[in-house]
Amino acid sequence: MLSENAARQSTDVSFLADGGELGVMMHALDWSGSPLGPPQQWSQALKTTVGMLLAARAQIVLFWGPDFVALYNDAYAPGIGANHPRALGRPAIENWGELWDDLEPLLSGVRQTRKTFAAKDRPFYVERHGYGETSYWDVSYSAVPDDDGSVGGVLCIVSETTERVLGETRLRASEARYKELNTTLEQRVAERTAERHLLATIVETTDGQIQALDLDYRWLAINTSCADAYERIYGKRPKVGDSLHEFLADRPTHLAAATAVWDRALAGEAFTNIDEFGDPEFDRRVYEMKFEALRAPDGTRIGAFLTGTDLTDRLEEQARLAQAEEELRQAQKMEAMGQLTGGVAHDFNNLLTPIVGLLDLFQRKGIGGEREHRLIAGASQAAERAKTLVQRLLAFARRQPLQAVPVNISRLVANMGALISSTTGPQIEVTVDTPEGLPEAMADPNQVEMAILNLSVNARDAMPDGGRLCISAKARTVVSEHNAELAPGAYVCISVTDTGVGMDETTLAHAVEPFFSTKGIGQGTGLGLSMVHGLASQLGGALTIRSAVGAGTTVELWLPVSHAAASAVDAAAEPKLQRLPAGTALVVDDEPLVRMSTAEMLSELGYSVVEAGSAEEALQRVREGLRPNLLVTDHLMPGMSGTDLGLALREQYPELQILVVSGYANNEGITPDLSRLTKPFRSDELAASLASLAKAGP
Ligand SMILES: Nc1ncnc2c1ncn2[C@@H]1O[C@H](COP(=O)(O)OP(=O)(O)OP(=O)(O)O)[C@@H](O)[C@H]1O
Ligand SMILES: [Mg+2]
Questions:
Q1: Which of 35, 267, 270, 623 has the least C-beta neighbours within 10 A?
Q2: pLDDT (tens digit, 9 = 90+) per residue, 577-612?
Q3: What pLDDT does residue 483 have?
Q4: Ligand 2 centroid from CA 458, angstroms
Q5: Which fold would CATH assign to domain 185-310?
Q6: In the chain, where are the structural domains located?
Q7: Going by CA atoms, what residue is nearest to atom 19 of ligand 1?
Q8: Which of 391, 507, 517, 523 to mutate to test the pocket of ligand 1 (most atoms within 8 A of CB)?
Q9: Residue 241 burial by Cβ neighbours in a 10 Å radius (0-12, 13-18, 19+)
């Protein structure tokens, strides 16, 4: 009986048999604290359901009763992690606390409505492993009727899909990332391509020369500018794949020069070099070249590359600048010398005037005996030489009085032919080459003749054993602003070329300086070229010299073209000494000695002379009633100038003849309206001036 009883009792819990581990656990569980009470007392419906779920392999949990007491199977247990086994037989709220707010409405809903709730990949927040996580489940919650037909519990057949869902999410994320990467990559490739393209364009369009050679001297790359450069200096363009050796095979010396630098570069040396390359038949250019080793991405040396710049124009520009600076320095030196020389010459001139005048007077009056006559003649000759010297100095200093008129240079040079030939002697063949129709130059014809004669004498001296002397004239135009000496404009250029000894650099550099002569003491004054230079500058032209030792010399005298109407150059007709209409002459000079000698000459010429020491004094005399026929006045005086005096008196007395005497050409101040005479002068020169004055009328 007892065993029968026991058998019935065990039959009562037989639904737990074959229930896996959880069946065993339920069997062993102390159910005293559970709202369900011991399994033996469970309703039949509950027993049946539990038996069914324990046997199932699907993950199943049953929440029974109003407290949702949890009963689950082996398959379900791992899904709740650490909550197993304490969750077994306990109200769900105790172990599903973290998701109770989510779960409870679902379970209550099924209990109340009996409607099954099902979902796929339903997320549930759980803390089963001691940390919060979102788990995913396919769920099916359905109502389980109790014995009395009411809802006894909710049967939850679930299947955790967390791993799949997360896997899919990860996959989607990585797919998205991959997609994003792909687009960025495309974009990056596009950008990089654009950058490469830009770089290539820059390399192709830069005027810097870029080229690379491999270790066999074959071009790996060459930009347009570089190929252009090769074409310019060798007449042909290398292209990628060509060999340097073959390219320059027909020019061994050029090949040697090129390989000399490439050898170093291909040996791995990085260096910068400035050198001249090119076949003179085409062009020679100076390049600055920067060589560097060329390496493959893995670092191995595969050749060398060169970036080059054509320096030729820059160097030429620098040389031009240096030359212009040198010319300017030279011009400044000449200017300073001119100032000094001019000052000294002017003073000497003033000193010479009374000496020349007095000696002239002595000679004309026949003062003294024969011995005195000889001495006076000697002194007079010396004074004449001094006068010439002073004139030359004044010419150099650009202070000689010039009468610039339009001059037919062709005719002037042609007329000099015989004179030049007789000066240079039979050993020298003289050619005169002057074209017809040359424009007239604005110049002082007498001084230009002197200049040509001077240059011819220089040429003669340079050809002691004979040679050829050619004098020619050409119309030339200066356009460049960079000419140190000549302003842009039209010129007549007279050139005097000899086949003589020529000049070395030092001589050439100093030739124009006053008193520079290589001809030895007593042979040359060293003033010839100085004069010509001064003349040219004073007329607005220039003097240029080209010469080399043994190669002869060409001296060019540039004179500006006259824009005025032609005037008779051959007004060279000497005014004949005429009987002068005597009258009263007013002589004005602040230098008593000069004044005295002028006065003496004038009274010799038949004038009654009144002297005044200044312009003011002269005006005073006129105010006091003096009515001179002739005014001879110095120009530069303290106070009022001679020119101003002349103009003031002409205003009142238009009939008055006026002659301004000046030591040098002070172009500012002396008006061309007044006749001029240059100091120092002899009596006959004074007479000639007065004669032409009388002829011209006031
Ligand atoms: N045609 C030339 N060939 C070679 N050297 C020349 C020539 N012209 C001038 N020279 C050189 O320039 C120097 C200066 O010439 P410049 O005419 O000024 O003086 P000079 O001839 O020595 O003396 P001067 O002309 O006063 O009698 C000369 O001494 C000579 O060395
Ligand atoms: Mg000379």
A1: 623
A2: 344 456 889 999 988 888 888 888 888 888 888 999
A3: 64
A4: 5
A5: Beta-Lactamase (3.30.450)
A6: 2-166, 185-310, 325-396, 405-566, 583-696
A7: 526
A8: 517
A9: exposed
